[in-house]
Amino acid sequence: MSSLALMGVPQTHTLPDGYRIQLAPWGRRELLLIGLPLLIATVLIATLAGPWAPLAVVPGVLLAALLWFFRDPPRAIPVEEAAYVSPADGRVTDVTHLDEYHFFGGPATRVGIFLSVLDVHVNRVPAEAEVVETHYAEGARHDARTPEATDHNESQWVGWQEPCGARFAVRQVSGAVARRIVCPLSPGDHYGRGERFGMIKFGSRTELIVPAGVQIAVKAGDRVHGGSTILARR
User: Fold this and answer.
1) Active site residues per annotation
2) Per-residue confidence at 195, pLDDT binned at 50, 70, 90?
3) What's the predicted TM-score (pTM) here?
4) C-alpha to C-alpha distance for 7 and 128, rounded to whole angstroms
């Protein structure tokens, strides 16, 4: 693995010939504060604990789980011009019609995706677009699979506008065990389809909201992959 991958720096948006696990840059703090002590404990127990050396598997497994959570696999990004790709890995929990959505000035459709602790938690941009506005809201810690989470949990909302003028929104919603929403975006930032823009740590929900009339390509229960699964087409 290259030094960039070890540092968590994304290196590609497409699947390489040989698959390599890379880590999300937003996990560096946890990897240093939690992962480093686990690594030291694993080594010390394995080398110095004598008959208790097999216990090194405990911190070793915890370290592996931490690395697995912050994995950031490359994805093959669809080039279909009118497509909106999934902003997250996980399972579609709902496809909901909204009578009025402020960002569009009319009705909309919301696709909700639940991310378990086993899913990749890096968020990706559904289509090439520029950030128009962002809003952060404090909130509760309801299970991200419940309707209460959508209305009451901590969230980060981002409104986007495509070069053609079409608009969409992405909302990151914390879950019962999520502890931090990462979204280093500002109005005026421009991103391509499938680019990484943040993550939610340790369980969450991510939503794509598009104007009514946009064709939804998934249904509740479908498994989706961030940056590669097409959720909708305008």
Assistant:
1) 204
2) very high
3) 0.80
4) 27
